[in-house]
Amino acid sequence: MGKFTHVLLSPELAISDKFRPTAMHPGFQDRLALVVVDGAHLVAQWDKDFRTDYAQLHQLCSLFNRDVPWFACSATLDMKTLHTVIMPDKFFN
């Protein structure tokens, strides 16, 4: 533990049972400084038909300390999708 500065995972692996022990490990939790989600421009498509695991990333919030910031990035995020990213409950409930 503590040998890496970055861990790059697909959403599918990040919420998997395979990664959960690492995500819950105190050493990992202590060193976690930022969660980055790439592809935020696709958030409007994160539903039952497209990359459903993106819509489940909220599961990681319950595993990680609430003080850990989340950063969503995109090269092509339009205003409508930006509002969906900012207020996902309005769109996904």
Structure description:
The protein is mostly helical and 93 residues long. Helix content is 37%, strand content 9%. It is built from six helices and two strands, in the order αααβαβαα. Strands 1-2 form a two-stranded parallel ribbon. β1, α4 (58-63) and β2 (70-73) form a beta-alpha-beta unit. The longest helix has 8 residues, at 79-86. The protein is globular, with a radius of gyration of 14 Å. The mean pLDDT is 77.
Task: Describe this structure in a few short sentences.
By secondary structure, the chain is mainly alpha-helical. Helices cover 37% and strands 9% of the residues.
H/I helix tally? 6
Mean pLDDT: 77
The total count of strands amounts to: 2
Shape: globular
**What is the share of helical residues?**
25-40%
| Radius of gyration using CA atoms only | 14 Å
The major sheet is characterized as: 2 strands, parallel
Strands of the biggest beta sheet: in what spatial order? Answer: 1-2
The H/E string reads HHHEHEHH
Uncertain regions spanning at least 5 consecutive residues: none
**Protein structure class:** mainly alpha
Ends: how far apart? 37 Å
What is the strand content?
Answer: 5-15%
